[in-house]
Amino acid sequence: MATAEKDDARAIARRVEQFTRETIIPYETDGRRDDHGPLDTLVDEMRAKAREAGVLTPHIRADGSHLSHRDTAQVLRASGLSPLGPLACNTNAPDEGNMFLLGKVATPEQKRAFLAPLHAGEGRSCFLMTEPAAEGGAGSDPSMMQTRAALQDGEWVVNGRKAFATGFAGATFAILMARTDREDGAAGATMFLVPLPHPALVQERLIGTIDSSMPGGHAVVKIDNLRLPASSILGAPHEGFAYAQIRLAPARLTHCMRWLGAATRANEIAADYAVKRQAFGKALIDHEGVGFMLADNLIDLKQCELMIDWCADALDAGEMAITESSIAKVSVSETLFRVADRCVQVMGGTGVSHDTIVEQVFREIRAFRIYDGPTQVHKWSLAKKIKREALARP
């Protein structure tokens, strides 16, 4: 990448960081939220300010092209300095991942109808793939998908149930994944674009979860005789599993970017506390037990930054980077959880209180160790790769 483009990315990241620190952090005490996340009235107000400041959807250029993954890391980390930052700047999940997928796969008409409003911060989206575990549905293993779509009289008819549908309540459209049968009888999956609200998609309940940063929460959704035209298909029929990988590899990494920003902020708060708080005749940071925890945090944050850059470089090189994204997701999520845990410990009672965002960052990163694939699933996948390569060696 040319130096001028790198300079532009750094300038964008600086503007996003300034906006997040000066404009968005004060909103962290705003009462417009429920148990699942900020209300849309709050999100809309913050996005209006981001639009005015020129930092709305900052990782996508005016012509629709994306910054490189390496440059995106700087921008998303800056927005992640507050749990509200990604929502304000339109760099949040699942919208950011959905924008990436639509940009790669959608038709021109689909981009006008779905991508353009999302890019402009007008509404939210959701991604419907996971299904209820109690019913044996798809989770980390998408081959277990039970939601079915069948072609009848020129329309696709979809029936099933989805779970952990993040942001379904209040979303303007969904990317819905369903199992479909190829002409040869082999099983495939197809993605559909569904405008919301839709009478055939009914929210049965909201799942109470440890995290609280997602507007609309995580829903269980019943899909009852949903009828869709062929024009609703995203990409080609039966290629949904392949498209999921197009979306998931970068999305795992952008999660890492945002939560690196949040953990960085939590560490700043913990360090400030340790410098000011006195105990046993001196500042907490001068007690070796506390000072060493903060030193470990500094080391871990730098290691996460380097891991993200390594994976971003693989994606920028045109590789699918499934392996790299699994390694990065495991390493960063587990490491940042240790960082957040130390921040809570350094701050004692204040660390588990709602007086700062440290306890929220702890909860959110705990959930991140599961979302987009639990650590153990990624390790299992990596172990299989290690076995294949070992057996292939002479």
From TrEMBL:
All copies of domain Acyl-CoA dehydrogenase/oxidase C-terminal, residue ranges: 239-385
Keyword flag Oxidoreductase: yes
GO biological process: fatty acid beta-oxidation using acyl-CoA dehydrogenase
The organism's place on the tree of life at top rank: Bacteria
Record domain Acyl-CoA dehydrogenase/oxidase N-terminal: where: 7-122
Protein name: Butyryl-CoA dehydrogenase
GO cellular component: cytoplasm
InterPro entries attached to this UniProt entry: Acyl-CoA_dehydrogenase (IPR050741), Acyl-CoA_Oxase/DH_mid-dom (IPR006091), Acyl-CoA_Oxase/DH_mid-dom_sf (IPR046373), AcylCo_DH-like_C (IPR036250), AcylCo_DH/oxidase_C (IPR009075), AcylCoA_DH/ox_N (IPR013786), AcylCoA_DH/ox_N_sf (IPR037069), AcylCoA_DH/oxidase_NM_dom_sf (IPR009100)
Cofactor: FAD
Keyword Transcription regulation set for record: no
Coiled coil region boundaries: none
Assembly, per entry: Homodimer.
SUPFAM superfamilies: Acyl-CoA dehydrogenase C-terminal domain-like, Acyl-CoA dehydrogenase NM domain-like
Gene3D superfamilies: Acyl-CoA dehydrogenase/oxidase, N-terminal domain, Butyryl-CoA Dehydrogenase, subunit A, domain 2, Butyryl-CoA Dehydrogenase, subunit A, domain 3
Record keywords, A-Z: FAD, Flavoprotein, Oxidoreductase
UniProt family annotation: Belongs to the acyl-CoA dehydrogenase family.
Enzyme Commission number: 1.3.8.1
Domain Acyl-CoA oxidase/dehydrogenase middle residues, every copy: 126-202
GO MF annotations, alphabetized: flavin adenine dinucleotide binding; short-chain fatty acyl-CoA dehydrogenase activity
